[in-house]
Write a structure and sequence with these properties.
Elements: H1 19-24, E1 26-29, E2 32-35, E3 41-42, H2 47-57, H3 66-103, H4 108-119
Length: 120
């Protein structure tokens, strides 16, 4: 007997729906569905999972409607971008620190001159 094929999430073409941003405060980031309120990710990009997360954990946000809801959405998106940029900038600083240390004018030339003064 042939074994039944296993379901593969990637083969089902599950994609982020832009309406989830305004309805459930979710945004796609690096191929994952991220909650703008608590920054948790949903395991599988399905409407049921997104809606279940929103309805169970963020019931207070259901009271926002219209312009107030759009304003909250913009605030949460800006906050998430700020957090992402903070960590991105920190990573860049870490990567460039060794290069800056090598280019420092106080590095090897100053050490060599100090060594010469002490031996003279």
């Amino acid at each position: 007997m042939a074994e039944p094929k296993k379901r593969k999430v990637k083969s089902e073409c599950r994609k982020f729906q832009t309406r989830w941003e305004s309805e459930c405060f979710f945004k796609e980031f690096k191929g994952k569905c991220v909650c703008l309120i608590c920054t948790e990710t949903v395991a599988v990009m399905k409407e049921y999972n997104v809606r279940r997360h929103y309805e169970t954990k963020h019931q207070a946000y259901a009271s926002y409607t219209g312009a107030e809801r759009e304003q909250k959405l913009k605030q949460r998106v800006a906050l998430l971008r700020g957090q992402q940029q903070y960590f991105f900038r920190a990573q860049i600083v870490q990567e460039k620190a060794p290069i800056a240390a090598m280019r420092s004018p106080n590095s090897s030339q100053d050490m060599a001159s100090l060594f010469q003064m002490e031996t003279s």
